[in-house]
Amino acid sequence: MRKHIIVFLVASILVVGCMGDPGHGRGRGHGHDHDKGRGHGGLKMHYYLNRCGSVSVEKTVKDIVWSKVAADNTMAAKLLRLHYHDCFVRGCDASVLLDPTQNTTTEKTAGPNRSISGYEVIDEIKTKLEADCPETVSCADIVALAARDAVSFQFQREMWPVFTGRKDGRVSLASEAVTNLPSANANFTTLLTQFGDKGLNLNDLVILSGAHTIGVSRCALVSRRLYNFTGVGDADPSLDPEYAQTLRKLCPQPVNGGTILEMDPNSSLTFDSDYYRALNEHKGLFVSDAALLTNQQSASVVKVLENQLVFFAQFARSMVKMGAVEVLTGDQGEVRKSCRVVNGQ
Ligand code: HEM
Ligand SMILES: *[C@@H]1O[C@H](CO)[C@@H](O)[C@H](O)[C@H]1NC(C)=O
Ligand SMILES: *[C@@H]1O[C@H](CO)[C@@H](O)[C@H](O)[C@H]1NC(C)=O
Ligand SMILES: *[C@@H]1O[C@H](CO)[C@@H](O)[C@H](O)[C@H]1NC(C)=O
Ligand SMILES: *[C@@H]1O[C@H](CO)[C@@H](O)[C@H](O)[C@H]1NC(C)=O
Ligand SMILES: *[C@@H]1O[C@H](CO)[C@@H](O)[C@H](O)[C@H]1NC(C)=O
């Protein structure tokens, strides 16, 4: 009983800290405003309700995603990351899905694309929806719903509301993926700036980084921390020495950059608050993870988010916010027929 009151208070403090962002307060997150489509960049709850006859868009996405995640437990992380990469480059407009053409190198060809996948799952959902409700459901909404459903499979309930009505963009540039997506070596200042550019604040940065509670990376992105941090053959002093030793065993020299590493060593298949516990034990995998402890305010949020109930509530809030970054709605953009190519090509 008492624990729940404390959780509530702590969550409230975090939420009050975010009140500066109009339309994103949690109190407004479940009110009537959404039915009117206000806030969240013009997105609505159940936008497709009267647009696809008896077909439930949400159910179609959920059924396919759940079957894919049930068959492949690495798929949840992939679909979650896909949504993040979409939203951070030109907003959540499915630009991340466009295949390169003869003329353009699209986002997915850029360096940060590595290990991005899940495209086939999006294609499968799109094919089904085009058959059941043609030229209506955007790829950007499919990506947003798929990310939510992928994480939700573990809990068998919706972990956050997904507002819909996004349109798909017609532009995708590799160069923008490079400049907009934070690097694994980014420091706190850079991370805060890059999130700020997307209308996301310090709390969102710390909360959304908790996505690294699931999924994997590769030795290439951490070897510098293990062997040559300052360029003179030493390890990153902010990394727990025992954990550094464990990682050196997993990534022995000469480093095979492609070797897979779990980001949350205890439970990389489980969506939980262990990411923050690991951070506080100085076992965050990337410099960008460890960076969250280098700022006092950020470090205090990391501490609070060790509480799983608080983390889940806050993650839901920040995902709704991220899902509304620079979205195209109404007459903007288009509904692609194939998620990999813009219409008319
Ligand atoms: C704070 C800035 C962030 C940085 C610097 C960052 C960096 C990275 C890197 C370097 C990887 C490994 C990629 C690879 O091995 O090629 C990764 C994986 C991942 N990231 Fe992030 N990320 C950030 C924020 C986020 C956010 C906001 C989300 C989602 C809300 C997210 C979700 C994921 C997931 C789920 C994976 C695992 C993917 C898989 O297992 O396939 N990340 N991230
Ligand atoms: C691709 O480039 C060629 C030659 O520059 C141009 O004629 C064509 O219109 C371009 N196609 C698209 C889709 O931009
Ligand atoms: C991702 O980027 C790498 C390196 O820039 C490139 O070699 C690879 O083909 C890209 N992957 C996809 C799916 O485009
Ligand atoms: C953070 O990184 C940026 C870009 O690499 C750099 O310009 C800046 O000096 C760094 N800030 C701190 C506090 O180290
Ligand atoms: C270590 O880092 C320095 C500076 O970044 C670089 O010049 C050097 O080649 C690196 N050494 C190894 C063994 O990677
Ligand atoms: C990992 O599990 C061990 C043993 O259960 C526990 O002591 C440790 O705190 C956990 N670490 C993280 C980062 O969750």
TrEMBL record:
Binding of Ca(2+) 2, residues: 213, 264, 272
Predominant location: secreted
Location of the active site: 85
Lyase among keywords: no
Binding residues annotated for Ca(2+) 1, in chain numbering: 86, 89, 91, 93, 95, 107
EC number: 1.11.1.7
Annotated GO CC locations: extracellular region
Superkingdom assignment: Eukaryota
CDD domains named in the record: secretory_peroxidase
Annotated site (Transition state stabilizer): 81
InterPro entries membership: Haem_peroxidase, Haem_peroxidase_sf, Peroxidase_pln, Peroxidases_heam-ligand_BS, Secretory_peroxidase
GO-annotated molecular function: heme binding; lactoperoxidase activity; metal ion binding
Disulfide bonding pattern of the chain: 52-133, 87-92, 139-339, 219-251
Residues in the signal sequence: 1-20
Cell location: Secreted
UniProt binding sites for heme b: 212
All copies of domain Plant heme peroxidase family profile, residue ranges: 42-343
Keyword Iron: yes
Binding-site residues for substrate, renumbered to this chain: 182
Assigned keywords, A-Z: Calcium, Disulfide bond, Glycoprotein, Heme, Hydrogen peroxide, Iron, Metal-binding, Oxidoreductase, Peroxidase, Secreted, Signal
Role this protein plays: Removal of H(2)O(2), oxidation of toxic reductants, biosynthesis and degradation of lignin, suberization, auxin catabolism, response to environmental stresses such as wounding, pathogen attack and oxidative stress. These functions might be dependent on each isozyme/isoform in each plant tissue.
Family in the record: Belongs to the peroxidase family. Classical plant (class III) peroxidase subfamily. Belongs to the peroxidase family. Ascorbate peroxidase subfamily.
PANTHER family hit by this protein: PEROXIDASE 25-RELATED
Name of this protein: Peroxidase
